[in-house]
From TrEMBL:
Lineage of the organism: Eukaryota, Metazoa, Spiralia, Lophotrochozoa, Mollusca
Keyword Transmembrane: yes
Protein name (record): Uncharacterized protein
Organism: Dreissena polymorpha (Zebra mussel)
Domain of life: Eukaryota
Ranges annotated as spanning the membrane: 5-26, 32-53
Keywords: Membrane, Transmembrane, Transmembrane helix
Amino acid sequence: MSEKIVVVVVVEVVVVVAVVVVVVVVVVVVVVVVVVVVVVVVVVVVVVVEVVLDRGMSVTALTCVRVRLQNSENIE
């Protein structure tokens, strides 16, 4: 009888360890996926903001140049 109990306990321990390993692997995979998604989103947002700011700055610079040209023409 004691041998059967030992076998059952060993099988239960192996099953519990296997379940814990699977859960840990799943959690690690989910965390890695979330981190990758967050990094991709941040990179996309930064690139879009830089492009928009670059365009905005270039538009602002062009507007300043036009105003200066108009002012210089008005002065002459």
